[in-house]
Amino acid sequence: MSRVAKKPIALPKGVELNIQADNVSVKGPKGTLSIARPAGVEIAIEDGQVQLSPATAEQTAITGTLRAIIANMVHGVSEGFERKLELVGVGYRASMSGKDLNLSLGFSHPIVFPAPEGITIATPTQTEVLVQGADKQRVGEVAAKIRSFRPPEPYKGKGVKYSDETIIRKEAKKA
């Protein structure tokens, strides 16, 4: 069995894990998440910890994957996930109007991005965008969608970038 699948998942206070025949759902203070349960993976809750084990040798790989997904779901409903984006460039601005994110990224028109269900978007400053939510995959997906409006370019570094991302710079052509 994989090392990831052997590791138990600790359930924090206020988090419930419900196991049905076809899906697994996690409920906590930040919301409820669920995933389809693959056949051949046994899930047991003992002393506030969740332990996964494969029924057959062929199910070992999916057991480790399912353990990582359930651990992310438990972390998401208890603490939540966030991605921070930075706008680099002259005149690049972000602002909120209701639940819509307004971006000025050097185009002739502003970009209006509505926040999807379960995701909260905030702008602490005009050049920062904070994407928060319980589902790790959805938070990353929304952050990638916002970044795709103007990805950073390698010559001046202008564009929308993740806060922990480093842009590898290129030297311009010389005459």
From TrEMBL:
Large ribosomal subunit protein uL6 alpha-beta domain residues: 12-80, 88-162
GO biological process: one example: cytoplasmic translation
Domain of life: Bacteria
Cited PANTHER family: 60S/50S RIBOSOMAL PROTEIN L6/L9 (PTHR11655), LARGE RIBOSOMAL SUBUNIT PROTEIN UL6M (PTHR11655:SF14)
Organism: Marilutibacter spongiae
GO molecular-function term, one example from the UniProt record: rRNA binding
Gene: rplF
Lineage: Bacteria, Pseudomonadati, Pseudomonadota, Gammaproteobacteria, Lysobacterales
Protein name: Large ribosomal subunit protein uL6
Function, in words: This protein binds to the 23S rRNA, and is important in its secondary structure. It is located near the subunit interface in the base of the L7/L12 stalk, and near the tRNA binding site of the peptidyltransferase center.
InterPro entries xrefs: Ribosomal_uL6-like, Ribosomal_uL6-like_a/b-dom_sf, Ribosomal_uL6_a/b-dom, Ribosomal_uL6_bac-type, Ribosomal_uL6_CS
Subunit structure: Part of the 50S ribosomal subunit.
Family annotation (HAMAP family): Ribosomal_uL6_B
Gene Ontology, cellular component aspect: cytosolic large ribosomal subunit
Keywords for this protein: Ribonucleoprotein, Ribosomal protein, RNA-binding, rRNA-binding
Membership in a protein family: Belongs to the universal ribosomal protein uL6 family.
